[in-house]
Amino acid sequence: MTTPRTSPEVSGMGHSMKRKEDPRFIRGRGNYVDDIQLPGMLHMDIVRSPYAHAKIKSINTERALKVPGVLAVITGETLAKYNLHWMPTLMSDTQMVLPTEKVMYQAQEVAAVIATDRYAAADGVEAVEVEYEPLPVVVDPFKALDPSAPVLRTDKKDKKDNRIFHWQAGDRAATDKAFAEADVTVTQDMYLPRIHVASIETCGCVADFDRVTGKLTVYMTTQAPHAVRTVFALVAGHVGLSEEKIRIVSPDIGGGFGGKVPVYPGYVIATAASVVIGKPVKWVEDRMENLQADSFARDYHIHAELAAKKDGTMTALRIKTLADHGYADAAANPSKFPAGLFSICTGSYDLKNAFAEVDGVYTNKPPGGIAYRCSFRVTEAVHCIERITDVLAQELKMDPAALRMKNFIPPEKFPYKSALGWEYDSGNYPAALRKAMDMVGYEALRKEQAEKRARGELMGIGISSFTEIVGAGPSKQFDILGLKMFDSCEIRVHPTGKALARFGTKSQGQGHETTYAQIIAEELGIPAAHVQVEEGDTDTAPYGLGTYASRSTPTAGAAGAMAARKVREKAKKIAAHLLECSPDDLVWEPGKFSVKGAPGRSKTIQDIALAAYTNHPQGMEAGLEAVSYYDPPNLTFPFGSYIAVVDIDRGTGAVKVRRFVAVDDCGNIINPMIVDGQIHGGLTMGLAPALLEEISYDDDGNIIGGSFMDYLLPTAMETPSWETAKTVTPSPHHPFGAKGVGESATVGAPPAIANAVVDALSHVGVRHVDIPITPEKVWRLLKEHGLAE
Ligand code: CDP
Fold first, then answer.
1. Which residues have a catalytic role annotated?
2. What are phi and psi of 119, to 5 degrees?
3. Which of 176, 380, 407, 778 has its CA 20 to 30 A from that of 506?
4. Which helix (H) or strand (E) holds 626?
5. CA-closest residue to ligand 1 atom 4
6. Shared fold status for 22-30+487-630 and 139-413
7. Which atom number of ligand 1 is nearest to the Cα of residue 744?
């Protein structure tokens, strides 16, 4: 949508309306979990394991209970009495809440201390004495599959190895045949390391059980409050917590990015403590707990192969991957997709043959496998295809832009059925890449690079032309623990023509209060300023699956439009009644119905709203409201082309991203300013794993990168001035032609940067470097190839 249909006063789609939520944030009046103070509230802190794998011989709480202010110490034994010491993960695996026998990773929860204030709780934690007996540690996922490796999940009686799942997609035989017949094949191993979302706000909750009413309210940092309520009811139904007595409230959230989808043990322990003690209990992680124990992302060991003809036409893709999930599969993928949407790995290319397989394994690391601002393993898939495409370009001595142009799915082939089974809704990949090339001045940069090379300077240009897959999802394929992944909106128009709209999703900074109001403004003509948007309270919001994987616009946003259209249908009947004509004689323009051929005879949405309560037709129910539970017919496939330009310092190995051009296409845009904000933040979050972020472990399972001293986040110093632009290819099946956008930049940026670094060094034969591309890694390459100064 290029030109808005509504006035700035109405601010429907296409207006860069300022964010409605910002006045409270910039005044310091946000309401985060840690801002919640309840009368008599107690505080919880957690004892964590120093070992990655150890038997718990004993837990002595005596000294802790003597610490002034400490009221209780909860252990696995305490929870076992209520059968609450284990819980299901969202992937139908199981995970300890608190251990009774052994710990499985360093920083695992071992016991919890409840005290009158946070400091007393922390002192109590110091005083809990735990005796451990170390067990052999499995850190390397390849070794975990060795028949001699100790079986880690001894709690699973029938488990004889450390494999969690095997997943595959595509036609193996046809792919093998295409490889056998190919003129050229390239192979590349790549590792996408374990990283962590590191949101500004850590995780936490305030659990408040009212013994009189039997009602449990949990204020919680969750991206999916309704799903959490249902899981709580299923897990704790046997101790009397039934779903109508559970209220989950997600207040303001300081960044989720996938890390606030899982149910962490801390939430469950604080809730159990509040139920048992009968007082509110607050638990808020500190930064190191958040980094060391919460769900991680990536940790994919990928072996990729690409086959092509001599002229560069790609013919087949074959991928084998090992996924390290830690000690439990606590990812948050839709249940039929243990490897998420990794099967988008054929990317933007018209590949006729593909086969991909992923094996998930247990190791002695924190559980997870969540998405870090990406739609379930899409980042891994995109990194793989965009890197191996450059490897092929290098092998064929072809320009990487030309190779991409040659292999793109042509615009006229949409909707396009991919070799791995997806139906891409719409796309125009050559247009996005051409635009990015023009913006960056691609041909001139290639000349500059050649001149610099001749002078011994190292400069690289990297392209990533990615395709995303977001908006999970159609109920025929997508569910989490059986809950179908629709989403919802309920609209009430008040008599004075203002509206309240409630959604099943939950913003964590994306600006839903603004963009959802704009969708309704577009559909009904009620000014966005007068549409109050609410989310995140299970007592009031309609049931929905929450916000992650850029699904809000494709699902709940669509539900908003559909609910508004239902309201409009009723409004039409009321307008016909007021104008004494047939509904068929009315035409709609945003904000009013007019009689065909008599534009002077019209009723505004405000006139109609008032009539809905004061003068509605006999036989019609009063009021003006509607609900929509939207089950999308397909996912949406946003895309983009990014070009990074890097300079490498031959003295230090430091990589400087000099320029970064990002052309994105997310279909019709609701709020261009918000979309740009999403891209800017996403690009910075993409630069982070490309150059800086990694969590690794030593052979004993000790975490390396467990604090911000050594887990590096990008600052303004490392971040270039992003140059952004858009192309607009609407989604044909989405009610207003939009696709999700929140994650595109995080997905698309890392391979552009990696490709640029390799490009800078390709003339000496460097073909690949794993992210994060640290100065040390580059320095070693420079030394190896005689380029170091
Ligand atoms: O699920 P999440 O909100 O993270 O992702 P999204 O649906 O991609 O939306 C991120 C933000 O960008 C929301 O405020 C959207 O309403 C906005 N957006 C937009 O204005 N236009 C689009 N075509 C897509 C998203």
1. 223, 373-374, 743
2. -70, -40
3. 380
4. strand 625-630
5. 550
6. yes
7. 8
